[in-house]
Amino acid sequence: MVYGPKDPLHRFFPLLKRIADGRSSILLSDDFAAWRGPRGYVENVAHAIAIAATSDRAAGSVYNICEEPTLPELEWQRKIAGQMKWAGRFVVLARERVPKHLLLPGNAAQHVVASSERIRSELGYREPVESDEAIRRTIAWEQQNPPSSIHKEQFDYAAEDAAFAKTA
Hints:
Number of domains: 1
Helix content: 25-40%
Distance between the termini: 35 Å
Low-confidence stretches: none
CATH architecture: 3-Layer(aba) Sandwich
Strand order of the largest sheet: 1-3
CATH topology: Rossmann fold
Structural class: mainly alpha
Shape: elongated
Strand content: 5-15%
CATH class: Alpha Beta
Number of strands: 4
């Protein structure tokens, strides 16, 4: 997943909107909270591609470009929320107890874990923009450029509150 300014999928938006809307708790399904997938900030990915494209040593090679380590989704969202100084809490529930609008398609038991060790060791790749700064820049862009259309059903707070109430 490439994140950062001009992300047409607005990957940070659902979390940032919940925080901006004053949600004190954010709900995740247990399978999604544990899911791991590779991420890279757009400027860092571009830098890695430029290094590989201009290096004779890279000829014929294939490289993964991603941040290390590959964080589980819950830790990733905590990292973003921390940048927002959000004082709320994440609540992880069994998938069957989570409202349908929060369930993502696919099998979250199948992690997508990649290593960028090869491009780092062979070509000397390092992220020019460190992770906290990349997240800060992405948050700033998302706040200044919300999606052109927001699907209200994606933010069914009544259903989320009902799920929270069942945990009390």
